[in-house]
Amino acid sequence: AGSGRDAPGAPAAAPGAMEAREPLRDVRGALRAVLARVREGEPGEGREPFELPRFWDALGQTFQVTSQEATKLSLAFSRPPVPSAEDCRKLSEDVQNAILAVATVYYWLPKGQGTTLRKMVRDATTEVVEGMIQLTDTILNAPVESLSQEQLISTGGVWEACEQVSNLPRGEYNQAAVASALTACLGVVKDAVEEMEHALVEGQDPYGDIMEDEELGLRGNRDTYWSEADRQLLSSCMGLMKASKACLKKVLGAVKAYGKADSPEQIAQLDDLADIANEISPSVDELALSMYPPVNPLAVRLNAAKLASVLKKVLEIAKTSHVCPPTEEGWVQFLNGAVDHNMNKVKNFTQGQL
């Protein structure tokens, strides 16, 4: 359906209606400035002692207020009469204050609480500010006195962004944030492993579901199936992918069981684990992509080597951190061995290609 702006017989905008929205333009500019600051700025080291429970309460409240202000703003511009210039100024001011409060609370969170936690809170804050900018944009671009589908979607977007605060990990400071980040990585790697296993089991033709031979006549084309040599190489790659999954599972278990955030050193160790673990899923994806036919054994070897080095690094960081007491060293050793074993097999299968 059209917006009605050019429809014959559409009611003309009430005189002064456009000017009434002027404060909204100013607020949009102010919100963009806040967004830039949140994206680039560093939270300060507060002078007052930082209390995490107080921080979460305040963040939850500011997100809730922002959600309510979005609703008020959207309703005011959803039906005639258009808000007066005065009302629009008041609405705009309330929106701006709500967003400034959100940003202010984000800035309370000191660096010392851990970069993983800060990144999660920053992403949630950014999403709320972006949502509000989108809503003001939609209202400014819509014909006056009509509620567009875009406006409904934008309002819902702000609500959704504001609800994210309840999903943020609030356990033991940075430890909960790191556990949450590792869980997300593990989910992605699990999916990649399952997809690849499925493709290999499907039989001779990984593209069977998307290629119809009558149309393309490509059966028996070396580019669409795996040779026996390919399959030998790929089984070692699958070993590496499975080691990635096991590695994330074990590190996640160790973080949940032994992870602490009582000292700057412990917080930094947890952040290092989250940072390196974040490299696992893209490395698994790159390896998986290179495993599809036509297989270039050297590309596979290169991607396998990259994944193996990331896994060795994860295991090294875990082993030297507080999440790995002596009782946990067994699995670190075992997984190190599994990575080496599969990587050596990949090297043997591709030796003739060098």
TrEMBL record:
Keyword Cytoplasm: yes
Domain Cyclin-D1-binding protein 1-like N-terminal: residue ranges: 59-200
Intracellular or extracellular location(s): Cytoplasm; Nucleus
Location of the region described as Disordered in the Swiss-Prot/TrEMBL record: 1-23
Compositionally biased tracts (Low complexity): 1-18
Major subcellular location class: cytoplasm
Gene Ontology, cellular component aspect: cytoplasm; nucleus
Residues covered by the Cyclin-D1-binding protein 1-like C-terminal domain: 212-316
Keyword Glycosyltransferase in record: no
Key words of the record: Cell cycle, Cytoplasm, Nucleus
Gene3D superfamilies (alphabetical): I/LWEQ domain (1.20.1410.10), Talin, central domain (1.20.1420.10)
Protein family (similarity comment): Belongs to the CCNDBP1 family.
PANTHER family per record: CYCLIN D1-BINDING PROTEIN 1 (PTHR15492), CYCLIN-D1-BINDING PROTEIN 1 (PTHR15492:SF1)
Name the record gives this protein: CCDB1 protein
